[in-house]
Amino acid sequence: MNRLRTKLTLLLVAALLLVAVIATTLSFLLLSPPRFHEIEDALASQWILVADLASHGDLPPPAPDRIIGVHEKSPSGEQLEGPTHGINAALAAKGRSERVAVLKTLDAPWPVIAGRLADGRWLWLPMTAPHEPPNQDWALFGWVFAMLIGTTLVMLVAVRRLTEPLALLERTVAAIGPGGEIEPLAEDGPKEVRAAARAINLLASRLKQAMESRIRLVAAAGHDLRTPMTRMRLRAEFLPVEERETWIADLNELDRIADSAIQLVREEVEGSTHSPIRLDGLVHEVVDELREVGLAVSLDSTVPVCVQARPLSLRRAIRNLAINAATHGGGAHLAVSSVDGHALVTLSDRGPGIPEALMGQVFEPFFRVDPARGAAVPGAGLGLAIAREIAIGNGGRLTLQNRPGGGLVQLLSFPAAG
């Protein structure tokens, strides 16, 4: 009901129906309808006159090929209840005891008024005036219903054609891939649709160029940092021992930042294909690997579940999140589950968590919350950003939330594969 196309259609249909109803109402008010009671009274007077003439023998017998006149029998056919009742009521009002019937017979192209005379014969007269049609209310309802259906169909076609550029834009936005890629649109159809498709294709091209330029800039900066850092590392060897350790620590920090930046770029442009992966087996391997290097990581529970993803990048994301929980939260507890067709990897810790005011900034590159998470530890502040890029690139998502009893829960969710 909140769609523009639906609102526009309802508005136009309501406007046209309102105009039709007003025009019909004015027509009924300005145009006098036939006065059927006066017509029926005139037909009753005509019947009395002709019946009196027939009773005095002033009417000749009808010819064999004539319908109107005095006959020995009543005509056969369908009786019209409305005019029959009206004419009989007019006869009764004039003090006559005769009763007639208006019949639609096959012997005449028009209705026949037939009534028995005093001598037992039947008088047939044509009904020369129009009679009140039956079911007038239903006829008016049918007219309104036909107007409603016809107007709605016409407006649906018209509004669909008018709003096709907006619908094209909506479909295009919904089809944007996790990496921001937009498939080229066919520039065909009406002029407005072609113009919208051309504008969207131009936007997609410029957006792609801007993203590639940004990625090349970050990659080049991370790569070019290696040469001066190597020279600085060599020069640090000639420093006094008490200063050398500080220089080497700073250079290691710069090295980690450069590696993380290049890794983040690689995740955005990686074009490897997706393949089925046993997620529980992959998590088990990551836990064993981190245990060997001395991190407090444990695997609490698993269920067998498969996902479609890039194996290396998914392993990198789970490793980053597990290291984040182990170093900042005092230990990482992992679990693999399957809920409603989705594979879930839950990583929880018992650290101080993240302040709610900073929860919306934790996925920004180079953002650190070390003051809120405890003592400062080495890192570039790109672990969560890289993990989130990997999750999105594999059709999943990464969410964070503080535990009620303290600590942080990191939840990776992916569509389960058969």
Describe it.
By secondary structure, the chain is α+β, with helices and mostly antiparallel strands. It has 5 domains: 4-33 and 135-162, no CATH class; 36-126, no CATH class; 165-224; 226-269; 275-417, Histidine kinase-like ATPase, C-terminal domain (Heat Shock Protein 90). It is 52% helix and 15% strand. The chain is built from 12 helices and 12 strands. The protein has helices spanning 4-30, 36-55, 81-93, 136-162, 164-174, 191-224, 226-236, 241-269, 279-292, 311-328, 370-373, 383-393, and strands at 69-71, 78-79, 100-104, 112-116, 122-126, 275-278, 297-301, 306-309, 332-339, 342-348, 397-402, 408-417. Strands 6, 7, 8, 9, 10, 11 and 12 form a 7-stranded mixed β-sheet that branches. Strands 1-5-4-3-2 form a 5-stranded antiparallel β-sheet, covered by helices on one side. The longest helix is centred in the middle third of the chain and has 34 residues, at 191-224. The two termini are 37 Å apart. Residues 371-377 have low confidence and may be disordered.
Percent range for helical residues? 40-55%
Number of strands: 12
Q: Over the alpha carbons, how many angstroms does the gyration radius reach?
A: 45 Å
Instruction: Name the poorly predicted regions.
Output: 371-377
Q: How can the largest sheet be summarized?
A: 7 strands, mixed
Order of helices and strands: HHEEHEEEHHHHHEHEEHEEHHEE
CATH topology of the largest domain: Heat Shock Protein 90
Query: What would you call the quaternary organization?
Result: single chain
CATH superfamily of the largest domain: Histidine kinase-like ATPase, C-terminal domain
| Total of helices | 12
Beta-strand percentage range: 15-25%
| Gross CATH architecture of the largest domain | 2-Layer Sandwich
Which structural class do the helices and strands define? Answer: alpha+beta
Shape: rod-shaped
- Overall pLDDT level: 77
CATH class of the largest domain: Alpha Beta
The total tally of domains equals: 5
How far apart lie the N and C ends?
37 Å
